[in-house]
Amino acid sequence: WSCATLQDFPPQLLMPVLTSVAGHLDKEAFAPRHLASVVWSLARLTTKPTRLLERIEEQAIPRLDGMNDQNIANLLWGFAKLNYKPSKLLPAASEALLKPGMVERAKHVEVSDLAFAFGELGAPGDYDALMLALSERVAPGSDALDRFTSRQLVKLIAAFAKLEATAQLPSGRLETWVEAP
Question: If pLDDT is split at 50, 70 and 90, which confidence band does 60 have?
């Protein structure tokens, strides 16, 4: 996480870090939030160990109930940035996010990251309910709309376009995003 935050990954650390991650996966020793941190970190460092990502996906599915909206957003954002499609995880993550209180408390960065991830990894029609729930966090009058940057709104609009879901938005929602300061 530290190297990822600094966006500096000394080459001599690559093998020891990946070996350590593999060892923790062998022992199933990662807490749910740590799986998300590992994938987020790998994405920030543009390091794509596909076999480790497959194992992380597998271990993340039964641990989704132990993740909050930020953890799931970081996990899926990382997979999307690494161009790794966690096809088994996506439906389970969508279901977890649609549980009461998850999307409703998501911060602007989490909504943006989730929309980006599902836009990159999902297919049209597969996650309409989740995308509509995310759009509610950015509805006119919501406590989150004013916190969104123009870049985050563009990511949100792009995700809806990729998933061919803009027509399902409530009337005027897309226009509100386009006209937001």
Answer: very high
> Which one-letter DSSP state was computed for residue 142?
-
Tell the residue number behind the tokens 């966090």, with chain if given: 137
Integer Cα distance of 174 and 165 in angstroms:
11
Using an 8 Å Cβ cutoff, are 53 and 79 in contact? yes
Q: Which residues contact 70 (CB under 8 A, 6 or more apart)?
A: 36, 106, 107, 110
Q: How many helices (H) and strands (E) does the chain have?
A: 10, 0
Q: What is the pLDDT of residues 31-48, one digit of tens each?
A: 999 999 999 999 988 889
- Cα separation, 135 vs 169, in Å, equals 8
Q: Using alpha carbons, select from 128, 123, 114, 99 the residue that is nearest to residue 156.
A: 114
Q: Which of 36, 31, 52, 27 is nearest to 1 (CA)?
A: 36
Quote the pTM value. Answer: 0.92
